[in-house]
Amino acid sequence: MEYRFSLTPRLIALAIFSGVALLVLLFALGYQVGLSMAERPAPAVVDNAANRARQQVKGKITGDAAAAAAPATERVNAAQKAAQ
To answer: How do residues 44-72 score in pLDDT, each as one tens digit?
Structure first.
C-alpha cells in the first residue's frame, strides 16, 4: 500500500487557520492566567490605609503624613463605595 501526501491549497489554508486559532487561544489563556495572578491589595494594607484616613479625619496626622495618605484614602473610599 502506498500513501501519497501532497500539500493542496486547502491543506495550507487549514494549517494557517489552525495556527491562528491556536495563537488566539493561547493569548486568551495567558490573559486569564495574568488576571488571576495580578496583585490584589492585601487586607492589612487596606485596613492600614483606612486607619490613616480615620486618623486624618480626627486631626491626628500632620500635614506631610496626610498628603502621603491621600491617594490611599481615595482608593479606600472608592473600594468602600464599590462594595456597597
So the answer is: 666 677 777 777 667 655 555 655 656 66
